[in-house]
Specification:
This protein has 262 residues and is of the alpha+beta class. It contains seven helices and 17 strands. Strand 15 and strand 16 form a beta hairpin. Helix 1 crosses helix 4.
Length: 262
């Protein structure tokens, strides 16, 4: 098996390892060079460089050890260049920029880290909202970075102007701080029957279900047009496949709770 061992591949893995150690509290966020890392961890192990099986394969691929049992010069050159790149990345606060992404709390709530300063991270609810300063160690203990699209979970939502609550599915993503629910057909039809219009930011929104297109639809007076939401399949955290419909693009949907936590 051929192993990819280039400056780019080593740098990529080193960054992943360093960011993981920053999130788990092993490395402080205020380090300034690669050398600073050694005060907290064995930084020479970053990039799988202490994985014996991996490095044996790399060394063999580059011609084997020399007469003094040392690494091939090409391997040492790649490691040195990768560490220089990491020093530049840290010096330019690249690690802080890469920590600024979406995170999911153990509760399912999603947040966005918008800035890193010392031992503090500035966060907002994913999709927008008030900025809060929180302790980085405490935040990263309960919040993990989102990789790919989060799984959908059943939840309870409401919409401004209507007292009723509804069962929906959400993967935690929001727009401008509001939930983005998806509904099964039975619940969608109940919503359509319950209210022919609702108020959201003072604009009338009308809803219906289009049987021919098998789609939800809502009228946006500000745009003076009907917006259609086609049926789509999602996979839930339990591995089930569910057909759902969007409703009210731009509506003020409130996330009340995850269904399994009620």
């Amino acid at each position: 098996m051929t192993i990819t061992f280039t400056v780019e591949s080593v740098v990529t893995q080193m960054k992943k390892d360093i960011l993981a150690d920053m999130r788990n509290g092993h490395v402080p966020l205020f380090v300034q060079t690669f050398s600073d890392l050694h005060e907290h961890v064995d930084a020479n192990c970053y990039g799988n460089l202490c994985d014996d099986a991996f490095m044996d394969a790399v060394i063999e691929q580059f011609g084997g050890r020399d007469e003094h049992e040392g690494m091939p010069d090409a391997v040492l050159a790649i490691i040195n260049m990768a560490q220089d790149v990491i020093t530049g990345w840290i010096t330019r606060d690249g690690h802080k920029q890469d920590l600024c992404t979406n995170y999911r709390h153990t509760s399912g709530q999603m947040y966005t880290v918008v800035a890193v300063s010392g031992g503090t991270v500035k966060i907002t609810p994913q999709g927008g909202g008030f900025v809060s300063n929180v302790n980085a160690v405490e935040f990263f203990k309960d919040c993990k970075p989102v990789t790919g699209d989060p799984e959908y979970r059943p939840c309870i939502v409401s919409v401004d102007g209507v007292e009723s609550m509804f069962r929906a599915y959400s993967n935690g993503y929001r727009w401008n701080g509001w939930a983005i629910p998806l509904f099964e057909k039975e619940q969608l039809l109940e919503i359509v029957a319950l209210f022919k219009h609702s108020l959201c930011f003072g604009q009338a929104q009308y809803v219906k279900f289009n049987e021919v297109l098998d789609a939800s639809a809502w009228y946006d007076e500000s745009e003076e047009e009907w917006i259609s939401g086609a049926v789509q399949e999602i996979e839930t955290a339990d591995g089930d496949t569910v057909e759902v419909y969007p409703l009210g693009d731009g509506w003020c949907w409130n996330h009340i709770a995850w269904f399994d936590e009620i």
